[in-house]
Structure formats: C-alpha cells, structure tokens
Amino acid sequence: MLEQYLKSNLAWWDEAVGVHVNADLYDVEGFRRGRDSLTAIERDELGPLVGEGTTLLHLQCHFGMDTLSWARRGATVTGVDFSGKAVAQARRLADDVGLSRRATFVQSDLYDAPDVLDRQFDVVFSSWGVLIWLDDLERWADVVARCLRPGGVFYLAEFHPVVMLIDDGEHAGELRLTWPYFQGREPNRWDEQGSYADPRAQMAATVTYEWQHGFAEILTPLLGRGLRLDYLHEFPVTLGLEMPFLERRDDGWQHLKGGRDDIPLSFSLKMTKEAR
Fold it and tell me: What is the pTM of this model?
C-alpha cells in the first residue's frame, strides 16, 4: 500500500506545480522582480548563518523559490524534490532570475537523497508542510544526518502538530481536537479538489495521503543521530493553510479567529551536528 500512497501523492504534486506557479500565494512574478519568499521567522533565525559561500541543501524544495531566496543571500544551494515537474520548474526559475550557476536542483525520492548527492552541506533546510508527506521519520533523520557535515546546522520551520488536530469541519469555530495525535503508520486519506494555494483549482489528481507526526517522533530520531538541539520555538501564527478557524491579519500571518493567540500554530527548530 505504501507504494500506492506515494504514487498518488506524486501525481498530485506533479499537477500542483502548474497550479502553484500561477497562484497568488506564491507570487512568482513578484519573486522574479526580487521578492524574498522566506518568512520573517526563517530570515531572522537562519538568515544570520547563511551567506556567501554557505552550502545549503533544501529538502522537499517544490519548485525552488525558497531555495533560490537563500541563493540570493550568497549561498550555493541544492534543492531536492521527488517531483520531476517541480524540479524542471525550479531550474527554469533559476535561469529566469540569473541564479543557475549558484543553484542545482535534483529529482530524487527524499530517502535516496544521500546516495544521489554523495556529499555533505553546511546547512540542511526544510520548511512548511513537509513532514506530513513522510511516512518514516527514522529514515528522514538518517537523510538529515548523512547530508549534514560535522558542525553543520539543520533548520526546520513547520506547522505545529496541534494545528493538524483541530476540527476543520462543522465544529471549526469551537476549536475541537478531533484528529489523532498518535496516528501510527496508516495515513489519513483525502479526496478533494483544489490545493492549499488555490482551493478553486480543478485537478485530475485529487487523492492524497498524509501522516501526522508528534514532537517526540520528530526530535528523537534526530537526537539519536548526533544532532544537538539548539532551540525549539513555538509561534501563534502560521501561513498557507486553508482552514476555517484561521484569519489573515495585517502582519501578513494567519492567526486564530477572534483575536486569539493562545494556541501554537507553527514551530521552528535548529540543531547542530556534533563532531564525533
């Protein structure tokens, strides 16, 4: 069944590339004119560690806007994604903005990335909605550890596990927790039109599978592979989620409706690979 889950997800992401490059959420034209696609969280926390000559690996890079935003800061970047259409679009975008010499994009299943790349990086980076597509975080932690040089930094900005538990149906306004935190190996199955970037889009691929992961499942495998936790930050804001209990405010972030900021919606973590 796992092979079918991944095949279905790949079909969705291949088709989503064409939707997302034209979606307001991504604002590709603005990016071509110089807009930075990174959030303030990533810029403030990881930004001081990325500059001229930094080697950065972006896992699950989609069509490369965040990858190229790091390249604009001087980094030599490599983006990896399992979607061939996403990688082709990322390469075109790199050419469009004059960063093709500084950016390499590779099509690969995430778990195969260490063998495909066969090198280590100063920074391994991943962000926003990536973990739900992975069935095995032990293997994911192997990828991070193998691709990171001793003394290098792993940085993740991601949706908080709690936000994925909130009822987004008829009881959304009550902020009920209806989805399981401890999910196990079987994913949630979704069959619906549209995308988080364009809910009105009509797509041929509509079925996707997602895995919920708690903090212990995220952190423990990384700690067990020689990565030291430098910090874990939680935030009452998020972005890019189509959920009825969220609203966008003037600061550009999505918050809980009703002026509430008392539930975590996203988190970031920074870890350093210790020399052995």
Answer: 0.95
